[in-house]
Write a structure and sequence with these properties.
235 residues; alpha+beta; four-stranded antiparallel beta sheet; three-stranded antiparallel beta sheet; 18 strands; 27% helix; elongated
Length: 235
């Protein structure tokens, strides 16, 4: 029984890793996407098959991604640890997706959600030419209009909400970025860090590991069934 639990736990871990690598590959060209990593830890539960279980935790890569020039004045990239803050139905969340949009009423959106200013309120801009400076200050037709909220999560664990949005357990715990620690680049977008070729290699390797673990599960299960049948016949 211990072997079955160990093999099944290994298969579950490989499947989680497989899904993560596949998701990273699918979003390799998504602006602001943060790559996922799986942390798999053995769990001791004081049973005969202790350490056979595993706890799987998802973490995001907060490292700086490469920038690409777009020339679009509503595209911005953050260089440094800061995230943009937005308001969602689940409360305040954070994103690095700088492909901003303006609604008909002038509301500025990031990742499809209202972008927050330094005051904590959603930003609304008048019509005109938008300029976003390195410190996150926004002007329209040369006149000061708003200031982006730049927040630095530091070591806070960010939980993925989907749609390039991330949220810690306590969003209010995320502090404003230190002045000068992050720079906003207008006309650029940030793309995921990482190497697609390495991810493809990892995908094949993890797939083989998962298949091997599942064969072990099947083999152990077959052995147990044969043992049970043998005892049943003897009885």
């Amino acid at each position: 029984m211990n072997g079955l639990y160990i093999a099944a736990s290994g298969a579950a871990g490989e499947l989680a890793t497989l899904n993560t690598v596949a998701q990273n590959l699918a979003n390799a060209d998504t602006p602001g996407y943060r790559r996922f990593h799986q942390l798999i830890e053995a769990v001791a539960d004081n049973t005969p098959w202790q350490y056979a279980g595993s706890a799987i935790t998802t973490r995001i890569d907060t490292g700086q991604g490469p920038l690409r020039v777009t020339g679009n004045p509503l595209d911005i990239a953050v260089v440094g640890p800061a995230f943009l803050a937005v308001e969602t139905p689940q409360g305040r969340a954070f994103t690095r997706d700088g492909a901003l949009q303006l609604t008909a009423d002038g509301t500025l959106l990031a990742a499809g959600q209202p972008l927050l200013g330094a005051s904590g309120a959603p930003l609304k801009l008048p019509a005109g030419q938008v300029t976003i400076a390195a410190d996150g200050s926004i002007s329209v037709n040369g006149r000061p209009a708003a200031q982006l909220m730049l927040a630095d999560p530091g070591d806070t664990v960010m939980n993925p909400l989907g749609g390039n949005l991330y949220q810690p357990d306590d969003p209010d715990s995320v502090a404003p970025a230190l002045p000068g620690s992050s720079v906003v680049r207008q006309g650029y977008l940030e793309f995921p860090a990482g190497n697609t070729v390495a991810d493809l290699t990892s995908l094949m390797s993890v797939t083989r590991s998962y298949e091997s673990a599942m064969r072990s599960v099947q083999s152990i299960d077959d052995d147990q069934n044969r043992t049970i049948q043998a005892f049943t016949l003897q009885a």
